[in-house]
């Protein structure tokens, strides 16, 4: 039989869908994510015990006193296990998935019951949906929707759909045909026959189907934890992969409590909504002779009142708690300002350690964080899609080569933070005579012919099977047992306790070398290859989303001693307390947070200056570089303990204010030309603290897509391309006179081009409009200007020097400034910004908009965390 490439066809179809229907998947993701967030905000937003009370009232209404008490105890137990948030997240997933499934399944079942052709067509589809391994549904979910809630919900809907459809169809088909015929004989329309005869009688069967939908949804939502769906599923998955028996038991109990509650409540709901169910319940209550109160169920109005009262109390407490949280957060660093950063990790020790380390650091820096544990495949996929911002455990260039090759176009390598690593086979030290990989040959019986490995997807497993065993002639004698890292460590631990020989896959660094007395088997043939580096990998665009964090990650480094001690601290803290272990480790490494994540207000940023408390009065006129430099220094001076005032003035009043001592300093004196008149008039009462930027330049500029125009000489004969126009600024500006009187004449452009006088803002608007349409345009510009940071532009060369020489931008202060502010004088004399720095600062201010210049400058400082220490150093 020829090989049927069914799998490759499916992959081609998936690739096509990903390339052409992304907008549909994004829409579905937004809708489902919004539904989940809304439900989770309701279920997870209240005080746990009050929410448990609400669930108990619902149980009281549906089943009676004893189930209500059991419900409250069960949910209180979940809260005492510190799993409330996870349980509510899981319940939210179940509710969203079940509601969508029921809305689709019940009408589909009705359609199948009333149309045999539809029923025949649906049956094989439902068979596939119901019998396909549940894990398979996660693969397209992750590929189309990324990791998170949506793939879990989608997979759950598909998996839970069949019983809802089948039971609805079955219930309607089982309604006595004579009753249906009687209804039709009395002239009942098909619509009313369905709603008044078939559905009421089929309701018990339909409710049983809904019950199965909900239970299957719960089972699938737990599996969805593998795709980052969160909730109890993530806890169970973490317990499995890390072999945490305690966490598995606690999470399992929470799942059982949810399952029992949902099963009993949906089963009892039939008694409330079905006439047959109400009749059966009434008979049971009437026949009860003892403990009649246990059969009492409050009316709907009474139960609803109880739920509403508890909900209002829970909501009120939640609002109060939110206010308190906001108040306490105001004292924290404002660097992240609550920005959400999502991290993912593979359950390898260095991944866990570094991820929870950064979780703690980022939260100390004012960020909100999310953490998801995933296998390597979904993790790289999630980072590539942007669902996860970064992960810190990429072993390159070998172990994760396949993932990097597949997703490298969508990823940014933030650099290595640890290395070189090493891969090895390891045995306990009591195993004598086995010191090298060569010594393993002929010793297979001693180890039961097994090498205990880790996850089969790990790159080192491929290297072991394809290269190491072959290089040392171990094929056939040894079988590599794929398991998980936690299972491998459990086998190692069990063997050591029994003093049994065992050979396992390990790597350095690893805490196991600190816990056990182990031997790394030498690799004289170099089959394992060279050591790797552990890299941090982020999605494309992360540096733009969180520039400060991106810079910290690029500079992130840990030594082997630091990493090993961190891993051991986390091991000592125990399961579920990784962040507590990180905090304990950071206490022993005082100052490390400021070193790893330096910010204004962090290391070197919160120190008070020698003249702290003095007031510095600054002025500026509304030129972009003046606004940028002034608000930059306002932030830096306040970080150093100075007080500041800022005033906007025209150049004349500004220079006059400085000369009279009413202002202390300004940062935008263009010398020796532009502001020559002001300098000549007031120089006896001013102090020049030196230039911080230069040389400046005047120029004509075109977008980079305009080919063949690189110099002012190239403009000649190309007037039609630009419609004979050069877009200028205010006619009173000095550069406009130079352009009209000198530049056009020097390059023979008179008559061919007309200089359009407008305003700076109009010129920039025309530039922006032309770039959006990819149209040729030539405009007057100057350096520095934020437009060079925002757009890809070419400065037209001026080989004849028609524009003249560039100027320097100086800081100019009042005459006695050095006497009044000796420390600040030293800082300002050394003040320098590069063109790239100034352009990026101006762009940040443009993004922030008018009135938010100070906040925008602060954001730029956060993205350049060492700027305060460099520009305003305090010994």
Automatic annotation (TrEMBL):
Entries under Pfam families matching the protein: BPD_transp_1, OpuAC
Transmembrane parts of this sequence: 49-78, 90-114, 134-160, 201-223, 243-262, 299-320
GO biological process, one term: choline transport
Compartments reported by the entry: Cell membrane; Membrane
Record-linked PROSITE patterns: ABC_TM1 (PS50928)
A molecular-function term among this protein's GO annotations: carnitine transmembrane transporter activity
Membrane topology listed for this record: Multi-pass membrane protein
Protein name: Substrate-binding region of ABC-type glycine betaine transport system
Organism (species): Streptomyces pratensis (strain ATCC 33331 / IAF-45CD)
Lineage: Bacteria, Bacillati, Actinomycetota, Actinomycetes, Kitasatosporales
